[in-house]
Every structure is written in structure tokens, then in C-alpha cells.
UniProtKB/TrEMBL annotation:
It holds the Pfam family Aldo_ket_red. This is NADP-dependent oxidoreductase domain-containing protein. SUPFAM superfamilies: NAD(P)-linked oxidoreductase (SSF51430). Residues 2-150 form the NADP-dependent oxidoreductase domain. One of its GO terms (molecular function) is oxidoreductase activity.
Length: 159
């Protein structure tokens, strides 16, 4: 990889789903070439990176690229997807959304993007998805809303 960077074929080096140990090993082998990004799953029901990977990335100037900001596909991965309409968690997101004239998905994406040094790659299979995702930007959740989200989607790994 270092040779590819030195020859100009690769501009930046990133990894996917790396633990702290793997990021440290990668950086060791890259030498002076900086590791700039770790792409990991991050959403309301998978906050596992908050205890180790995210703080490490912030301390070391790495960007976290969070994938699946609306949850994993439950039919494929067997984990929780985005909260279903009528569930307690969805009602929380919907009520917060009303306050800002936003959808539950926009609230969730805004929550993901609240962290400095974290970007997200939400699915956008059509123009409407792109517009919906863009409407998650340029506004901030108030402290009381963040607390409501934290209470209803507690840290604790993957669910």
C-alpha cells in the first residue's frame, strides 16, 4: 500500500471494520503514510464503536465513516433494523421529528452525524432518498432531544 501511495496510484489509505489493535498494526506497517479512515457500522442500535474505536479515531485524527446509519437489514443480519412504525423507539424519533419538521430517518441521521470526525454513508437509491438524507443536515438536535434518544437507544453494543 505504501508503494501505491508513493507512486501516486492511491491518495489516501482507509480500512473497514478495524479494531484499535488492527488500526495500530496497519499504521505501523504504513510507516509515514497516514491511515485516514475506518469504515464501520454505526447507528442507533449499534453504538459499539463509542467505547473504543471512535475515541481512538478522534485522538489519532482518523475519520470514522459510519455505514448503515438506519440499521442493518434484519432479514439478512438478524439484528434490529430501523424502528418500526408504532414502536416506542419510533414514536420517540417521530415526536422529535415533529419538533423540527423532520422525518424519523432524518432525526436518526442527524444524531449519527452529531459527532466531530464522523461521516455517514446512507443508502440513496433514488433522488427522493438523496433529498431526504440532505434534509438531515444543517440543524442540530437540542440537548433534551439527545437525552431522549440516549435513553431510548442506550449504549450497549449491537441489538
Amino acid at each position: 500500500m505504501v508503494e501505491l501511495v508513493n507512486k501516486g496510484f492511491v491518495k489516501y489509505v482507509g480500512v473497514s471494520n478495524f479494531s484499535i489493535n488492527l488500526m495500530e498494526r496497519a499504521q505501523f506497517h504504513l510507516g509515514k503514510v497516514p491511515l485516514v479512515c475506518n469504515q464501520v457500522g454505526y447507528h442507533l442500535n449499534d453504538r459499539s464503536i463509542e467505547s473504543d474505536v471512535l475515541p481512538f479515531a478522534k485522538e489519532n485524527g482518523l475519520t470514522i465513516m459510519g455505514y448503515s446509519p438506519f440499521g442493518y437489514a434484519p432479514g439478512v443480519f438478524g439484528m434490529k433494523g430501523f424502528p418500526r412504525v408504532g414502536s416506542q423507539e419510533r414514536n420517540v424519533l417521530d415526536s422529535i421529528g415533529v419538533k423540527y419538521s423532520k422525518t424519523a430517518h432524518q432525526v436518526a441521521l442527524n444524531w449519527v452525524l452529531r459527532q466531530e470526525g464522523l461521516v455517514s454513508i446512507p443508502k440513496a437509491s433514488n433522488k427522493e432518498h438523496i433529498i431526504d438524507n440532505l434534509n438531515a443536515l444543517n440543524w442540530e438536535l437540542e440537548k433534551e432531544d439527545l437525552e431522549q434518544i440516549e435513553f431510548n437507544f442506550p449504549f450497549g453494543g449491537i441489538s
